[in-house]
Amino acid sequence: MTSSMPATKRTGLLTLALAVAVANVSILQTLVVPVLSMIAQQLDTSLSAVGWALTANLLAAAVLTPLLGRLGDVYGKRPVMIAILVTVLIGTVIALTTTSLPLLIVARVLQGSSYGLFPLAMSVLREQLPPARLTMSMAVVSATLGGGGVVGLLGTGLLTRGGGDYHRPFWLGLVITVLALILCWFALPHHVRDKQASTSVDWLGAGILGVGLVLLLLPISQGADWGWGSPQTIGCFIASAVVLVGWILAERRIKQPLAKPSLLARRAVMLPNLGGLFVGFGMFCAFLTITNFAETPDKLAGYGFGASVLSASAIYMLPGGVLGVVLAPLIGRFVQRAGGNQALLVGAGLGLVGFLGMVGWHDEPWEFIVFGTFAQLAVSFGFATLPALLVAAVDPADTGVANSVNSIARSVGSAISSALIVALLESNINPLTGFPKEATYRIIMILGAAAFAAIAVIGTIGIITGNRDRRPDPKAAEEQAQAYAGEFAEVSGVR
Question: Which residues form the Major facilitator superfamily (MFS) profile domain (predicted)?
Fold first, then answer.
């Protein structure tokens, strides 16, 4: 970044770098989904074994995200984000070159560290941007989470068209990771760390939280194979509850905790986290419903459109993904002017229209595309709105951890949604066609609508109780933004 670069260009470059980095999170998450059966076939293993390529990625994300957020607070956002991208790059190279399932799972664990980029990106934006630009930039960066997933699906469809090697989609991940690394290297500012700031990292708290989250997510992702009533499934859920309660008790006794229990219990923080849970649930309801339904051959099942992986991504998913990214600045303006909870209500309304519309009208492709786009836009609204609500609820020093917990909530919601949908589809196979019954998809669509109905309730509660929640002083926020800008100017040689 040169000293002569205007502030608006620096802001634009920073937002672009963070958007590409965050998009890479969802690209890496989704690009393996369409090729799981291909991986199982080419590695000569079972589909349930290959499923660990998804499970390991999710577990790594749950364990690493809060710890990486804290490391960013202690050592600076730039070095931690660069280290994450280098780790993801190593994992992607391993995934590209290995023919071993254990090594592929290791690669997916390394790629799981990418989930820490989103909360760190939100913290960087809050530190570097004035309040007038903050909400819009957060909306743009957040929207790339949904758009990145569509890019991952579309890229996988293109790279595996007509069969081929399962390694090909990872080339897309490699290119985006390298691009994000280059952009972040030049765009992320160097911070002069405050010598009076705490340098302690709550490793014990991070370990306990990681164990609790693994015990929670593991049975959610493997419950269909283990059996939902099996001893290991029930035992993991019970153990998770015990460990997480123990984590809360331990955090209350630690001087510099990983996450303050009092912060997480604050209504203005708890509501966005509940919203994140339901947004994650609704996102996978939309993603799995649209792709699986569109790919179902209508001549055999009596419903669906017989789309390929490529056409399901390009025709049925891409419009909603692109529209969400394009409208992100407008969503940001709406959040800034109307308020986060009001925007959450609008997004919930779009989700209800989308999912209930798909319940009633899914015989023609255009109907499914239109209502599916509404559902995807609802997810974009959620991604764009939740960080703004958290920024309004916490002090700057707590931005990273608050967004980290919100990311975990979305991951838990996504895991619950995917596990539930897979269980519903597998348990309701029509013996005459070999495909899930059409009514099963209606149930999934209704579940998606229920998730956004819950988001509407959360937004309403936020509106009613918002005036009683503590909000940061706008003048103090402006002064802090100016202080960060001055610090950046000194480090970058502007003055």
Answer: 10-468
* pLDDT of 474 strictly over 60: no
Residues 271 and 372 in one domain: yes
Axis-axis angle for helices 203-226, 231-253 (nearest 10)? 160
The set of residues, in sequence order, having a beta carbon less than 8 Å from that of 454 and lying 6+ positions away, is 274, 278
Nearest to 172 by CA among 13, 322, 319, 26: 26
Average pLDDT of 278-289? 90
The SS3 assignment for 436 reads strand
Q: How far apart are CA 92 and CA 89, in angstroms?
A: 5
- The separation between CA 277 and the C-alpha centre of its own chain, rounded to angstroms, equals 11
Average of per-residue pLDDT values in the chain: 84
pLDDT given at position 75: 83
Spatial neighbors of 186 by CB under 8 A, at least 6 apart, are 1, 13, 17
pLDDT tens sequence across 448-460: 999 999 999 999 9
Domain shared by 136 and 216, yes or no: no
Distance in angstroms (rounded) separating the CA atoms of residues 134 and 136: 6
In eight-state DSSP terms, residue 6 is -
| Averaged pLDDT for residues 154-160 | 84
